[in-house]
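Homework help board

Subject: predicted structure for assignment chain

Our instructor gave us this sequence and asked us to write out the predicted structure in token form, then describe one feature. I got the tokens but I'm not sure how to describe them. Can anyone check?
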Amino acid sequence: MKTGKFYFLYLVQLVMIGIFALVLLGYSIKTGERDYFENEMFSKNVRGLQMSDPRLNEEVNFTPPQIVGERYMIWRYLSYGESEIVRGIFGTDDIFGFSSLIGQGRFFTTQDYTGRTRTAVLGDTSAANTVEHGGKKYYVYNNTEYEVIGTFAKQNNTADRAVFLNLNALDAEIDQTAGIYYVDAADSATAGKVIDRIRADVNGAFTINDVEFEPHVSIVLGKMQYTLLFFSSISVLLCLVITGIFLVTGQRYKIAVRKLCGMTKKDFLLLYGKLNLVVGAAAYNLIFAAAYLLSHVLKVSIVANIRLEPEHYILTGILLFAIGVCNTLFTSKMCDDVDISCVLKGI
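My token output:
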């Protein structure tokens, strides 16, 4: 196989691999976001508990624990309906990116939680259920007004129906700690740690039962999808290996002559490294052009329905670079293994 034909085939392979990677990255992010909102804005790590039946006569004040260095959110489950989803909220960090959804105002801050301010953040449709006086909007819950400090831009998902009330102010106003609480975090270990701290803080004042949230949709890819992804990746690697083998075996005589003229393994590394870099750069530009053409011009559903962010293209570029490095090392090793004497003898 001539070098030009080989690298054309290699270019086609890289373009197909890159488009596959882009679609997979975009689809995985979109699927995660969709599942998160369809599952009432809970992640797969959510854990719940129900506190009921106070065992002490005196008032018991429940304060959400603040574990240094841990990022999590605590929700008090109040109501879930077709028109509104009402919850109390406390968080050490905005780990699920609610601030990025804000269309007007702002999201809760640490000062809101620690100051027990009667504040609320509403979804786009829930924002209509407010009263206004003194130039400010208020959401009324349990005969108490919560100042609306932020409103989500229209999301066309569950966030539009959200009513988030400052949990610290909420529990103080309704004077009743008993209820269902959910702890959500970026990982299940953190959620479990927070649950354990809550149990320790309550110290038997309430009967506490674990509550398991049942997701409405699957948050993770099924085994079949992972199996298909695994075998697809293996197939891609085999194709690249076979292509590299054909390159070297088809040019054994030329490689032998080059070695006879003094080319070393380092020289082959530089030669094929430059070629792979050029082809990789060309493939990257073609991938970008193909993604734009398929999503914006032809509006192919498999591409147009996913959201491709700059980081997806960066990761795809890193993947192409890694493939180029591996291919360079593999090809150079095969060139180094070519026996000059055998080739020139026609063996």
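Reply (TA_rk): Your tokens look well-formed. For the description, you could write something like this. The first helix runs from residue 3 to 38. That's the kind of observation they're looking for.
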